[in-house]
Amino acid sequence: MIDEKLPQGQEKARVVEDKFDRIAPRYDLLNRMLTFRMDVAWRRTAVSSLQLVAGARVLDLACGTGDLCRTLSAAGYQPIGVDFSAGMLAAARTDAPLVRADAMRLPFPDRSLDGLTCGFALRNFVDLAPVLTECARVLRPRGRMALVDVGEPTSAPARAVHHLWFRRVVPFVGGLLSDRKAYAYLPASTAYLPPRPQLLEIVGAAGFVDVSHRTLGAGAAQLITGTRA
């Protein structure tokens, strides 16, 4: 259930854009610190799950500072980054073409891309279902999609440690090095993520088959993959 205190609708879009604009300069540094560099491995796993031919054109949705774009390039793909945060795009460190755009209105023709990735952004969209439908629109038939986002461990001890780290340590360290309010919002925003069965159902309804789910980092992250029908 989504906390009533969290922003909804267009207010959410405004809040998310503002927060990511503010944290962009130190976003990569804090990602590495707060995940003990596990985020690097999670992105590599997402990219390897695409299983596309060399030179495939892959859209990185909500590309931020270009982490996944760099991983895609290293894997031999041709990435294109899209984000609606001007601050993130200004801080990006990638040679990939970058476009500022709304995820619900992607500026690409139907069936024009071979693959799509999205890293840690599903909970930041105003409405996930139409975003995934738009992702399906721009992918060619049998194109591949890989979505990686935060998760929650299933075992009680691991979940307690994860909760302490994510809800207490992340805002504290984020406040010291960047923006405390933004880094308090990021853990709270996990409430926007649907439960796993519902999330996979939304992906399937958007036009994807062979949808699968796997946990990463002992459940701290999750990877959803699918093939365009």
Provide a short characterization of the protein structure:
The chain is an alpha/beta fold and 229 residues long. Helix content is 44%, strand content 22%.
Task: Summarize the helices and strands and which ones pair or pack.
Blueprint: H1 9-23, H2 27-35, H3 38-48, E1 57-61, H4 67-74, E2 78-83, H5 86-91, E3 98-100, E4 113-119, H6 128-138, E5 139-150, H7 156-177, H8 180-188, H9 196-205, E6 208-216, E7 221-228
Parallel strand pairs: 1-2, 1-4, 2-3, 4-5
Antiparallel strand pairs: 5-7, 6-7
Helix pairs in contact: 3-4, 7-8
Top CATH class: Alpha Beta
Order of helices and strands: HHHEHEHEEHEHHHEE
Calculate the mean pLDDT score and round it. Answer: 95
The domain tally reads: 1
Largest sheet: 7 strands, mixed
Q: Treating each run of at least 4 consecutive H or I residues as one helix, how many helices?
A: 9
Query: What is the number of strand segments?
Result: 7
Shape: globular
CATH architecture assignment name: 3-Layer(aba) Sandwich
Low-pLDDT ranges: none
Enter the CATH topology name: Rossmann fold
Percentage of residues in strands? 15-25%
Order of the strands making up the biggest sheet: 3-2-1-4-5-7-6
Name given to the CATH homologous superfamily: Vaccinia Virus protein VP39
- Termini, distance in Å? 31 Å
Structural class: alpha/beta
Helix content: 40-55%
Instruction: Please tell me how large the radius of gyration is.
Output: 16 Å
Could you please describe the fold and organization of this structure?
- It is a single chain.
- The chain contains 9 helices and 7 strands.
- With 229 residues, it is α/β, with parallel strands linked by helices.
- The protein has a single domain (9-228), classed as Rossmann fold, CATH 3.40.50.
- Strands 3-2-1-4-5-7-6 form a 7-stranded mixed sheet, with helices on both faces.
- Strand 2, helix 5 and strand 3 form a beta-alpha-beta unit.
- It is globular, with a radius of gyration of 16 Å.
- The model has no long low-confidence stretch (mean pLDDT 95).
